[in-house]
Amino acid sequence: MNMPNNNERYINDLIDGKLNYIHIDRKGDFSNTNIDWKDTLILSGSFNPLHKGHEELKEISTTMTKRKPYYELSIKNAVKLTISTDEVFKRIGQFKEKGEVILSDATFFTDKSHIYQGAIFVIGADLCQEINNPVYYGGEEGLKKSLMTIKSNDCRFLVAGRFFNNKYHAVDDLMNIRKEHRFLFESIPENLFRLDISSTEIRSMNKEKEMTHE
């Protein structure tokens, strides 16, 4: 897949740590524009694939906060290794005319909060549960330090309810958020947004469709 060299150069600079993020506009053009994050909304994900749920979540969050929305895709993943350049271009291609994208090298929300100071992160309740799990931080102290870093960078979370572990969870159903951290997590009311399907389920449905067409 031959992409313009300029775009590949931006991605290489991101991989090499020369850039913290790349801005991709609705036409798919790359730049390293400086953005003031104070009035922005960031919907992070792997977008494999981008689906209606993501787009609806972006619309609802924008209406709720009156902030400018961006999708954010990281070239690194907490579980998997760095995404290949071809895969990055493929995923970015989904956003053409649908929204602006930030491509970053930040794996964790603590890192993201340093880059996007003042932003609100839009997440699902399943991810919210993971963010509040001390296992990922080497214990309670690490978790507290991470969340206080996010707070000191003037960032917070807007959380959509999600169906996982066989039931629907909103923020208040998550037992692992400590009272002193609860203020960082604002709930998106269920009557405004509810998503019962995940990207994983959509991927497996698409695979089944492909197999039936073969």
TrEMBL record:
<dbReference type="InterPro" id="IPR004821">
    <property type="entry name" value="Cyt_trans-like"/>
</dbReference>
<dbReference type="InterPro" id="IPR014729">
    <property type="entry name" value="Rossmann-like_a/b/a_fold"/>
</dbReference>
<protein>
    <recommendedName>
        <fullName>Cytidyltransferase-like domain-containing protein</fullName>
    </recommendedName>
</protein>
<feature type="domain" description="Cytidyltransferase-like">
    <location>
        <begin position="43"/>
        <end position="204"/>
    </location>
</feature>
<dbReference type="GO" id="GO:0000309">
    <property type="term" value="F:nicotinamide-nucleotide adenylyltransferase activity"/>
</dbReference>
<dbReference type="GO" id="GO:0005737">
    <property type="term" value="C:cytoplasm"/>
</dbReference>
<dbReference type="Pfam" id="PF01467">
    <property type="entry name" value="CTP_transf_like"/>
</dbReference>
<dbReference type="GO" id="GO:0016887">
    <property type="term" value="F:ATP hydrolysis activity"/>
</dbReference>
